[in-house]
């Protein structure tokens, strides 16, 4: 592991002339700030930066454009990704990976910066086995990447969810209803548990606790709240748990309390990135290029214990992390 904080030009060890950058998988607010940092850090060090459109699809099909500082002006406030992104089934095949690696070499790239989530990093592993020098920047609203405590897009997604919960609480309170709200997160519950905490939810259901999820306990909590005068309830459900509509129907049938289900869906992917996402994206983009210039190969930029780190790709993919169960316990205490 190499820590690159505070390094400057004297740390450049290799003659890097051309790097590529792409965004892959699901879009995440802050990706544009990362692209901007890669392009401008590269330009500062006289490195040619090639933007690759539509993720690995664009690499396989040679959809490229040389990028200059002016190309990334006024993009930090934009959601989504100016390079666009797409799922790439071809990267799940040996032939597809072979073609992507061949195009990388034809383009004369010295390194490839991949901004994306866990699936994108698995694609990097396959490319690295074929001689492609990859450096990954973790970007996914789900926060489900084991090697890093933070992923680009998470803070914006949580803030979007919190804003929605605030609005739903207003109408639930007015009508004395229960609101069951499904948030994104794929198979991880980070968004759900954070939204539940900052949105003041009475309960939260997330995949990591799937074996302990009990609809009866949720309904019991709602009835207990009603018995002490609470006239509205807010339940957060992670998409990896699902069954949001059925749960709302069950609550209404058993309690008699009018209950509505709301699925936020891709609303949480969009929007202008928060200051937190812009800061992490900018720093991670900078460190990715600095790692390449320092001669690092097949690495991942991570943020752990308050510091940016450069981790070995294979090491990063083998790491594990778990949701802090204490957050759930606090949610339940504060909901009383």
Q: Class by helix and strand content?
A: alpha/beta
General form: elongated
Name the poorly predicted regions.
1-7
> Which range does the strand content fall in?
15-25%
Give an account of the 3D structure.
The protein is α/β, with parallel strands linked by helices. It has eleven helices and eleven strands. The chain has helices spanning about 30-45, 55-60, 95-105, 120-130, 155-175, 190-200, 215-225, 245-255, 275-295, 315-320, 325-335; strands spanning about 20-25, 50, 65, 110-115, 135-140, 180-185, 205, 235-240, 260-265, 300-305, 305-310. It has a seven-stranded mixed β-sheet with strand order 3-2-1-4-5-10-11, with helices on both faces. Helix 1 (about 30-45) runs parallel beside helix 9 (about 275-295). The chain starts with 17 loop residues before the first strand and ends with a helix.
């Amino acid at each position: 592991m190499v820590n690159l904080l505070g390094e400057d030009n004297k740390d450049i060890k290799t003659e890097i002339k051309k790097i590529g950058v792409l965004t892959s998988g699901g879009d995440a607010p802050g990706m544009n700030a990362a692209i901007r940092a890669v392009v401008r850090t590269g330009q500062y060090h006289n490195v040619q930066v090639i933007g690759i459109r539509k993720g690995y699809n664009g690499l396989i099909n040679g959809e490229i454009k040389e990028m200059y500082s002016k190309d990334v002006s006024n993009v930090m406030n934009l959601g989504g990704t100016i390079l666009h992104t797409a799922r790439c089934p071809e990267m799940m095949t040996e032939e597809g990976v072979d073609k992507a690696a061949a195009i990388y070499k034809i383009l004369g790239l010295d390194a490839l910066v991949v901004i994306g989530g866990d699936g994108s990093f698995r694609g990097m592993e396959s490319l690295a086995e074929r001689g492609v020098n990859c450096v990954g920047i973790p970007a996914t609203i789900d926060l489900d990447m084991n090697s890093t405590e933070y992923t680009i897009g998470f803070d914006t997604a949580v803030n979007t969810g919190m804003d929605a919960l605030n609005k739903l609480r207003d109408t639930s309170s007015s009508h004395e209803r229960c609101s069951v709200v499904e948030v994104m997160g794929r198979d991880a519950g980070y968004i759900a548990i954070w939204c539940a905490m900052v949105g003041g939810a009475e309960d939260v259901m997330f995949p990591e606790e799937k074996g302990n999820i009990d609809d009866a306990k949720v309904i019991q909590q709602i009835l207990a709240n009603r018995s002490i005068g609470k006239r509205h309830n807010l339940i957060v459900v992670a998409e990896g748990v699902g069954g949001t509509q059925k749960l709302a129907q069950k609550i209404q049938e058993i309690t008699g309390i009018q209950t509505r289900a709301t699925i936020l869906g891709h609303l949480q992917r969009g929007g202008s990135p928060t200051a937190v996402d812009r800061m992490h994206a900018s720093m991670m983009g900078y460190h990715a290029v600095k790692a390449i210039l320092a001669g690092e190969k097949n690495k991942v930029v991570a943020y752990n214990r308050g510091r940016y780190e450069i981790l070995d790709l294979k090491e990063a993919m083998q790491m594990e992390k778990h949701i802090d169960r204490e957050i759930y316990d606090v949610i339940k205490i504060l909901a009383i």
